[in-house]
Every structure is written in C-alpha cells, then in structure tokens.
C-alpha cells in the first residue's frame, strides 16, 4: 500500500461529537489495523495544518477524533513521535493536542507544518481590525466586499443626527414627530421595533438617539432621519452623500435603520431598488472612525449598559462591556454597535483602547460568534507593534 493510502484508512462513520466549539468526527474501523513500532518523546513544539486535508485519530487508528478542516486556525502542540505500521507500510505520526488540551490524538506528520497557526476568524465572513490613530487596517478578511450590515447602519444615522444637533441643548430637546402610522406599527413589532411609540407621548431627539444607539430601535432611527432631513427619502440620500464625501466606494444605503426593504415595505418605508444597505467591513470601520473623531461623546453614550427612556428600558446588547459575559478588562471596550437580520447575520462594530496602545476599531460581519471573535480580533490587533504609542 502506498503512503498516501496509508495516511488514513476509514471504514465506517458512526458518530460525531463537539469538542471545544468545533465539530470532531468519531469514526470507527472494523478492526484495529495499525500497530506501534516505536514511540519517542520530543520537546514540545508548535505546528499547524498544512492544508484542509488530514485528521487526528487514536493511536490504534480505529477512531477519528477531529479533522484539520474543522480546526482551521488551531495551533497543535506535538510532544511525541511514533512509527505506526499498517499492513506492509510504515509512517511517522505525531501526538498532538490543542492549547486547551480538549482535542488530542495522532496525525500523520505530513499533514502538519511547523510553527503557530496564523490568526484567523472561523465564523465571520468579512472582518477588519483598524488602527484608529492611523486609519490603517492591521488585519482583514474580505474587508472590501460590500454586504448587508443590519443595524450597524445606525452609525451613519447617528453621525448625521449628531451633526445636526451640533452640541445644541435646544436641539437635543426638540420633539420629534413620531405620529406616522407606519412607525407606530413598527414600534409594536417584536421583530422590527425596539422602542414603543406610545400615543400621546412626546419624544425628544435625545430620547430617540438613546433608543437607536442602545436599544437599536429601528423606528427611532427612521424618525430621527426624518427629523434631520425632512423625509425618509431625503435622509437616505444624505447618508449616501456623506459616504461619497468620505470616499466610501463600498457603501450604499437604502435604509436609515438597517432593516431590509423586504421588512420595511409593510410599514411604508421601503426605498430604492436594492433590498439592503450594502457596505464593506472597511467602510463600516471608517464610518465608525469618523463618528468617534468628530463626536467622541459616542463612546460615553455607547458604553452605557442600559437606560430608562420615557419609562422604557433601553438595553445595550454589547456583551464586551464591563459586567457582561465576554468582558476582558485589558481591552477597555467602550463601544460601539450591534446588528442582526437573518440576511446580514450577526454584525458587530467594537472599539476600545488598551493601555499604551492606539485605539482599535473592529468590524465583524455575518458572524455566528461575534463577541468571541471580536475579542480575539482585538487581542490580535494589539499584538502588532504598529498599534503601540
């Protein structure tokens, strides 16, 4: 039997188990056909996958533990070498385990290459880590591809609101027209609302700003846009004009809130021919950078965990803030915006500033684990010397 066939004889797939957040496949052969010729302890060394080929087995090679494809960015630590025999062929195998020690076993040495695995995000389809000080990307993944961005679109909406307010307390206290039947109906929708527009209540610009930023209220964002520009259509035109001013060539808006037209239509707020706001991760990061530069209060406002507005609790779903599940003290996360629709997936724009480092802005789009991956991305960004003061 040639070496390529010797690498992994699999006869029957019987079960799958989940190990460390990735799927590992248990595979059992009819009989243990691999025998150990010799085993040697070696100095612990880091390796990573050479390609998506290969799998980790138990030493007898009658149970598959994990595939390389299932662990694309894992560093494997080798502590033993062994010569295994199958029929008339022999091969060198390495005993490996991940950092946590939750996945371990034997793999043919040719599937590995020496050194730690390069950083990567498993779930996010488009992502970037940007140095706020320089505006340069320090790490990216398909960051120039425009895609639906859900409620992170509100960063542009909030920028234009802050631009009109221009620090004026009287403008913050202006009452916004929330009488539209479409907006009232939207506010009552469990899937499309976020902040209830109650009959007879008057809401100020500041009320709706908090509702849009913290609670990600779609109806609040649309009402604010109409306050800024006079109509929903004029405001969306203003969003696109602002993007053009900033030379964001991968940004196109049809919605003040981030909802798609397929959802907005029933409320009378569909606009344009496209279904969704289409923006690249890089351009989202640049919008966030302009927002922080021109209106730094967004960091103070965006770090509030929750706030009662007109008797309603507005809850900030940024789970990297202090006291939340994914909080990491050293990262000092103080913003910025979550987003989700079934089309866009989970989206998140994060920002923070580690002591002695530049502020970082991160964007993950169409993610499945947005806070864990953002935390990993921030830590990776800070590993680069360019992020230091």
UniProtKB/TrEMBL annotation:
Name the InterPro entries on file: Beta-lactam/transpept-like, Peptidase_S11, Peptidase_S11_N
> Out of the domains of life, which is the source?
Bacteria
**Signal peptide (residue range):** 1-31
The answer to whether UniProt assigns keyword NADP to this entry is no
Q: Name one GO molecular function term.
A: hydrolase activity
Q: Which UniProt keywords apply?
A: Cell shape, Cell wall biogenesis/degradation, Hydrolase, Peptidoglycan synthesis, Signal
Locate the Peptidase S11 D-alanyl-D-alanine carboxypeptidase A N-terminal domain: which residues?
Answer: 124-368
The entry sums up its family as follows: Belongs to the peptidase S11 family.
Which PANTHER family is this protein grouped with? Answer: D-ALANYL-D-ALANINE CARBOXYPEPTIDASE (PTHR21581), D-ALANYL-D-ALANINE CARBOXYPEPTIDASE DACA (PTHR21581:SF11)
Q: What is this protein called?
A: Serine hydrolase
Lineage of the organism? Bacteria, Bacillati, Bacillota, Bacilli, Lactobacillales
